[in-house]
Amino acid sequence: MSALKRAVSSVAPDTVASLWQILGRLFGRRRRRLIVHPILGTVIALSETVSLLTILRLLLLLVEDNNRANLAWGPFTGSLSFGALAAVAAISLLITLLARLAEARVSARNQAFALRRARSLVIDAWFAADWEHLHAARLGRLQQLLGLNAQQAVIPLQLLSVASVAVISLAIYLVIVVVTAPAIALLFAVVALGSAAALNPLRRRSKRLARGQAELLGDLQLNATSYVQLNRELHVFGVEEAAATRLKDLSSATADSYARLKFIQRMLPSVYQQVLLAAIVGIVVVGRAIDVAAVAFGTAAILAVRSLSYIQQLNSSVQIYVETRPFLEELLDSVSDNRARQTPRGDADLGPVTAISLRNLGYRYPSGHQALEGINLDLGPGDWLGVIGPSGGGKTTLANTLAGLLSPTTGSLQVNGAALETYSAESWTTQLGLLSQEPVLLAATIAENIAFHRPATAEQVERAAGRAGIDREIEALPEGYATAVGEGRSSLSGGQRQRVALARSLLAAPTCLILDEPTSALDAANEALVEQSLLDLSPTSIVIVVSHRDALIRRCNRFIVLEHGRVVAQGDASEVDLAARLRAADA
């Protein structure tokens, strides 16, 4: 029967292979739970076939005005009365209904599992990747993967659910028609081969359009995310209209691509359906010409008509899968890429940081830009190192390297006499604190922002807030430490956000603290508060200050000057001519 051949040709071989691969990666060792779908599909197919055949015989009995029917269904032969046939039809219909309900429930549960699993894979791989790789990711990339891409994880399950019933049913129909009416089966085979060859180019074009649609939609979302982040700048420079035009152009291109894709997806099932209807007309003509028995003719006809809905469901599901497959492949490729970008770390336990040593350290970005070169530096207990120099000189790159966020491409970074990578990540982060220029707060309470997913008691949180000089202002809020802050919630001033972030850095009493332009966006009053908070650090702590602000940088007892990634001067304030360099930076 052409129905089965049509079904196979629409999903094989590339679609079947990709479906199996994607399901395997989503379900892992739990892929065996998917066997429930073909099992229930077999039950549905068999019970529905029995109901269709019994209904056909009931109709023939009415036409023949007979009360008994002689049956020969595979190994079963005999005769049944009209009432017995009706009972068989009713029982088989009930079994079909119950099996479909069970299959729907299993399908829903497996789809929910696939969605959870897809998001879990993205999250685990994302947060396991090294910072350098994630820093280079496009803005909004994680949101896109967890939203649009992960949402498509239910589609392979929908296709598997439909295909389990459709393909098995069509296979049973094929066997029945071959046995009862070989000539009609041959007609369907000819039609199947011809239609598969004629429509194959359209299927290939559908796949290309689906991939292009995924790329355009991703660009639209990422551009939208960028404009949200740049909202202030858009208004300052008065380019809102240009930004809106850009998004509209991307939206229009995406819509045009979507229209082309949907046209083909809509057309393919309709063409299949019309071809099958033409084949049914052929059944009538051939059946009359070769005088096919009424039972055989009726069987072929009713199964062919029933095949119409299965063919339409299967083709629609396949086309939806073809459309969403690029999103799933993008998600899984991203997971593999992030897993491969994990910085290897040892298991040695790091105690308080007492020595940091850089030997001929260099760093080259993947783009080829040499950001640092030939850095030699030794820091000991109580050292406050000021890092100064012109913009683009490598100051932030050095800070990120010292924090272990970037791995040197040449030379070495040693802590307490051993390479940084020999220590466990947990023990290193316990000793490290980092405060950047523009701290970002979680959409959570102030207490949760200070704790920052680390186990901490309320007393520890309050102590950190006190050390950061923000405790009284927090307590003055109506909900105190339970005040919700972050995106779309209660707002704090720039100085308050900076001091909450400082409290976050001071929570674990770090013995190495890195300050990357921490007060550049603050007014004098808030800068003084942050500066005062830093005076409470342990006298043995190592502090690295990247700043051009006079008040904070003058707290340092040692300095290095970076230009074009190289140290051009180092020593105390007089040796690096600190005052002149700060005046040049302000100018």
Task: Please supply descriptive tags for the structure shown above.
alpha/beta, 13% strand, elongated, 587 residues, disordered N terminus, four-stranded antiparallel β-sheet, ABC transporter transmembrane region fold, Rossmann fold
How would you explain this protein's 3D organization?
The protein is built from 20 helices and 14 strands. It folds into two domains: 2-340, ABC transporter type 1, transmembrane domain (ABC transporter transmembrane region fold, Up-down Bundle), CATH 1.20.1560.10; 356-586, P-loop containing nucleotide triphosphate hydrolases (Rossmann fold). By secondary structure, it is an alpha/beta fold. The chain starts with a helix and ends with a helix.
Please summarize what this structure is.
By secondary structure, the protein is an alpha/beta fold. It contains 20 helices and 14 strands.
Question: Any chance you could write out the topology, listing elements then pairs?
Answer:
Elements: H1 2-11, H2 14-27, H3 36-64, E1 68-73, E2 76-81, H4 82-128, H5 131-135, H6 141-151, H7 154-180, H8 182-229, H9 231-236, H10 240-290, H11 294-340, E3 356-364, E4 370-379, E5 384-388, H12 395-402, E6 410-415, E7 418-419, H13 425-431, E8 432-435, E9 444-445, H14 446-451, H15 458-467, H16 471-475, E10 484-485, H17 494-506, E11 512-516, H18 524-534, E12 542-546, H19 550-553, E13 558-563, E14 566-571, H20 578-586
Parallel strand pairs: 5-12, 5-13, 8-11, 11-12
Antiparallel strand pairs: 1-2, 3-4, 3-6, 6-7, 9-10, 13-14
Helix pairs in contact: 1-7, 1-8, 1-11, 2-11, 3-4, 3-7, 3-11, 4-6, 4-7, 4-11, 6-11, 7-8, 7-11, 8-10, 8-11, 10-11, 15-17, 17-18
